């Protein structure tokens, strides 16, 4: 496989898992993927500093739509035709195998860094949940293809899931169901490419998006105490049922629905502002899987360096931290790193997978 993923796999976010879809490649989607993965890197970088109101607000803003955006783009490039030999090989190589490999690596990393955790493939380690979710979404998409109102049904499932205590972090059940509507909506979006050639590309949409995104970020700062009281930080992560969030059952479903609607609005705003012609960003966007898998090793190593951690204690220092996270995203998008990690991220597994 080339250093950059082929169109069908590179279209995925963070990379791989859906059956490649024979659609013309539009670099705007790769650019959108790079923007989304950079938000992931920034979000994970500032997570330990969320005690600061400024960082809490930025964290809440990013997490309100960046993983929904990944799910949306993943759905956009997924096929509802069912599992074929080709898509099964892709799923094993780019999702299941990396999930197992990096679960082992993180288990080993935890032991050598004196932060051991039990090895349990039913409990995805931190960010590896998205690989599990992509497998589930890909396998169930043919079911949604025969439903008259697939997005509506997915939204109902996501809202209802929060009322079941068993829908928690095991096998990423909660997040898989919570972010399901975005995946289905991405798949359902008619034409996909017309999304950027139609209304979202118009001046009205761009002006509205340019105003909306900073307003949403500012609102996260202004209402940070109220958001914290409502446990919106774990709420936007979608990892736990309502009972664990202390959300009143009477309004918990409505709150999750409101957060989902907000995420859709922010996704479309971000897509509207995504540049149509940014070849460098688009090129980096073809290697988001590498960034997704590798970035947390750097961040964990950095955040355990207490001297550096304690230095970030003011707004201008936080700005440096965010800039460093953006630079990290760019550096991890290098072709050389993608080639180096290819045996772990996209192993061929000829001993296991048939290619005949």
From TrEMBL:
Protein name per Swiss-Prot or TrEMBL: Fucose 4-O-acetylase-like acetyltransferase
PANTHER family: MEMBRANE-BOUND ACYLTRANSFERASE YKRP-RELATED
The entry's keywords: Membrane, Transferase, Transmembrane, Transmembrane helix
Species, as recorded: Rarobacter incanus
Transmembrane stretches, start-end: 56-78, 90-109, 121-139, 146-163, 169-187, 199-224, 250-271, 292-312, 318-337
Listed InterPro entries: Acyl_transf_3_dom, Nod_factor_acetyltransferase
Keyword hit for Membrane: yes
Residues covered by the Acyltransferase domain: 30-333
GO MF terms held by the record: acyltransferase activity, transferring groups other than amino-acyl groups
């Amino acid at each position: 496989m080339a250093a950059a993923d082929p169109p069908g796999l590179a279209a995925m976010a963070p990379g791989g898992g859906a059956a490649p879809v024979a659609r013309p490649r539009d670099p705007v989607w790769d650019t959108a993927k790079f923007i989304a993965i950079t938000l992931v890197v920034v979000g994970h970088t500032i997570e330990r500093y969320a005690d600061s109101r400024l960082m809490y607000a930025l964290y809440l803003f990013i997490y309100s739509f960046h993983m929904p955006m990944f799910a949306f783009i993943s759905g956009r490039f997924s096929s509802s035709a069912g599992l074929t030999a080709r898509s099964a090989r892709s799923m094993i190589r780019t999702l299941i195998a990396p999930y197992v490999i990096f679960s082992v690596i993180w288990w080993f990393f935890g032991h050598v860094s004196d932060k051991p955790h039990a090895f349990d493939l039913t409990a995805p380690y931190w960010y590896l949940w998205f690989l599990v979710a992509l497998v589930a979404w890909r396998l169930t998409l043919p079911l949604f293809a025969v439903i008259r109102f697939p997005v509506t049904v997915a939204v109902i499932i996501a809202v209802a899931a929060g009322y079941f205590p068993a829908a928690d972090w095991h096998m990423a059940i909660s997040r898989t169901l919570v972010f399901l509507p975005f995946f289905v909506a991405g798949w359902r979006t008619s034409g996909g490419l017309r999304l950027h050639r139609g209304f979202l590309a118009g001046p009205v949409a761009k002006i509205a998006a340019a105003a909306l995104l900073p307003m949403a970020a500012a609102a996260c700062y202004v209402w940070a105490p109220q958001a914290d009281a409502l446990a919106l930080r774990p709420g936007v992560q979608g990892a736990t049922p309502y009972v664990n969030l202390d959300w009143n059952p009477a309004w918990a479903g409505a709150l999750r629905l409101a957060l989902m609607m907000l995420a859709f609005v922010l996704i479309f705003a971000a897509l509207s502002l995504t540049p149509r012609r940014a070849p460098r960003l688009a090129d980096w966007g073809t290697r988001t899987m590498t960034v997704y898998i590798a970035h947390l090793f750097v961040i964990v190593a950095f955040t355990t360096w207490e001297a550096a951690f304690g230095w970030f204690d003011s707004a201008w220092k936080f700005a440096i931290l965010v800039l460093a996270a953006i630079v990290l995203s760019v550096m991890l998008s290098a072709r050389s790193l993608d080639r180096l990690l290819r045996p772990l991220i996209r192993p061929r597994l000829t001993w296991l997978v048939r290619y005949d």
